[in-house]
Design a protein that fits this description.
The chain is of the alpha+beta class and 169 residues long.
Length: 169
């Protein structure tokens, strides 16, 4: 398969949108999450079905209530370009730590984001997303590794170490 320079650029731009989703959801950053959807873009996450901008509000509020950090790892990304539209299947593994009266629970899920991307005014964004969960596990973890304590840990928007470091550039 030979890709043109424009197709290579399209692939890179779409992958950047996908990475922006992971950053936005893991940093609880509403504005960043909203930036990946077209204004009329939809997100069907089963627990939320509606506009992508509404999903951004919903997921940040949900994560704030869960109180623990999350990590979304993107693995296989398959992109079919069709001019100014693209069908994209992205496998993910997500880790969510929740804190409640029982203590900390680690929720693990694996699934796929099934996205319809559209390029409008030269910008690729999500027009429609369906989130699948192909497997899930919940576990009450043991004690965290003592050696991890001095390392910076994941924090919400503005508090995470990346914001200060990246602001220097």
């Amino acid at each position: 398969m030979t890709l043109s320079l424009q197709e290579i650029s399209d692939h890179i731009e779409i992958r950047q949108v996908l990475a922006t989703y992971s950053r936005g959801v893991d940093r609880w950053d509403r504005e960043l999450l909203k930036s990946i959807y077209h204004p009329d873009g939809r997100d069907d996450h089963t627990v939320y079905n509606g506009l992508g901008w509404g999903f951004a509000d919903f997921i940040v509020d949900t994560c704030t209530q869960m109180k623990g950090p999350s990590q979304h790892h993107l693995t296989n990304i398959y992109i079919e370009l069709h001019g100014d539209a693209a069908n994209v299947e992205t496998y993910y593994i997500a880790y969510h730590a929740t804190v409640d009266e029982r203590g900390e629970t680690l929720l693990n899920t694996g699934g796929r984001y099934l996205d319809r991307f559209e390029r409008r005014d030269g910008v690729w964004k999500i027009a429609h997303r369906i989130c699948t969960i192909d497997w899930s596990r919940a576990a009450l973890p043991g004690e965290p590794w003592e050696g991890a304590k001095p390392f910076p840990h994941a924090l919400p928007k503005g508090q995470d170490a990346m914001y200060e470091l990246f602001a220097r550039t």
